[in-house]
Design brief:
Blueprint (H helix, E strand, L loop, with lengths): L2 H6 L7 H12 L6 E7 L4 E7 L2 H7 L4 E7 L8 H16 L9 E6 L10 H8 L4 H6 L10 E5 L4 H4 L3 H12 L3 E10 L8 E5 L18 H4 L3 E11 H18 L4 H5 L5 H9 L8 E2 L4 H20 L5 H8 L1
Parallel strand pairs: 4-5, 4-6, 6-8
Antiparallel strand pairs: 1-2, 2-3, 3-7, 7-8, 8-9
Helix pairs in contact: 4-13, 5-13, 10-12
């Protein structure tokens, strides 16, 4: 799939790994100013994309920073051992992006609309997270060694509150003065294979709703005044992307068939874009697709993400301790 297609249908690319693959596929060579490292685990693989130069920033449409992608199809499954490994990998990679003192104050923010299941990942992660800020004042005896002050909020969306999410977060940041903000949000993917099977961690913050075409105030270090790390999981795919992949596979079959190849040769270059645009016209191309089992997928992934965050922020906590807390 080409970058022109995404521009034609005004589709934003949430995942840095997909943006990297698209640009690299377009140019046929490595992208100057981008460093890519890969790691392999039993139930997951990790790709670290570092954008270090302005030219790469412009090519990929992503701000300079670190983007860590954990690809784990078993994240969709109710597999305790696999979820434990993925949570531990998440904790390890999240920890690599910050250097906080033991008594640091951290704010977790679950972005999204709890009334719309595909957009409820953030609030669900907050529901399962270990919050401790109140314990430091009211029940310090309940705290173990290596536990930090963590507070959390799910501020909702503009349509529910009438307030820009960034304004709500900014007000809380000014009041409680955290050393770090971690935001969790649902993302849009460029492939159905990535739904509930990929976790992205980025130290560049986030623009809420960008994957579905909503332009909101960015939540990042520049706007908040403190470092912001974003964690996201794709829960939807743009219908135009699915349609394009389907048409591309169909055209490949035409091309390989000696009898039908002539039909393929006579097709106009803009044929697929016109067909997809006509089919999606009632929704002006803004149609998002999510699996019917998205409820269980959100539940499984939110627990894993919450576990990884809790282990990263509370060094004395392991996955078993987290599950005891959760239950």
């Amino acid at each position: 799939m080409e970058l022109d297609f995404y521009k034609t249908f005004s589709i934003n690319i949430d995942l840095a790994i997909e943006a990297h693959d698209l640009v690299r596929g377009q140019t046929g060579q490595e992208i100057p100013g981008v460093v890519v490292d890969r790691e392999k685990y039993e139930n997951s693989s990790v790709t670290i994309v570092k954008i270090v130069e302005e030219q790469a920033e412009q090519l990929m449409g992503k701000p300079r920073g670190n983007y860590i992608t954990i690809e784990a199809p078993s994240l969709r499954e109710n597999n305790r051992l696999a979820q434990q490994e993925i949570a531990e990998v998440l904790a390890k990679k999240l920890s690599s992006l910050f250097n906080l003192p033991e008594k640091a104050n951290i704010l977790l923010v679950g972005l999204g609309n709890w009334n719309a299941t595909p957009d409820a990942l953030g609030p669900k992660v907050i529901e399962h997270s270990m919050v401790t800020r109140h314990l430091f004042k009211y029940a310090p005896e309940e705290l173990g060694e290596g536990m930090r002050s963590v507070s959390a909020i799910a501020p909702g969306v503009l349509g529910i509150t009438g307030i820009e999410t960034a304004e709500i977060i900014k007000g809380i940041v000014e009041k409680i003065k955290p050393e770090l903000v971690i935001v969790i949000d649902s993302l849009a993917a460029g492939s159905v294979d990535r739904i509930a099977a990929t976790i992205q961690i980025a130290d560049t913050g986030i623009n809420p709703g960008s994957g579905i075409g909503n332009q909101r105030t960015g939540i990042n270090q520049a706007s908040m005044g403190v470092p912001v790390i974003a964690i996201g999981i794709p829960t939807v795919v743009h219908a135009a992307v699915i349609a394009q992949v389907t048409v591309e596979h169909f055209l490949e079959q035409l091309k390989e068939n000696p009898v039908l190849n002539q039909i393929y040769q006579n097709l106009r270059p803009d044929f697929t874009h016109q067909v997809i645009d006509q089919v999606l016209q009632p929704f002006a191309g803004n149609l998002m697709v999510t699996p019917k089992e998205i409820d269980s997928l959100i539940l499984n992934t939110s627990k894993t993400v919450a576990g990884g965050i809790s282990m990263a922020l509370h060094p004395s906590i392991n996955f078993e301790d987290f599950n005891i807390y959760l239950n």
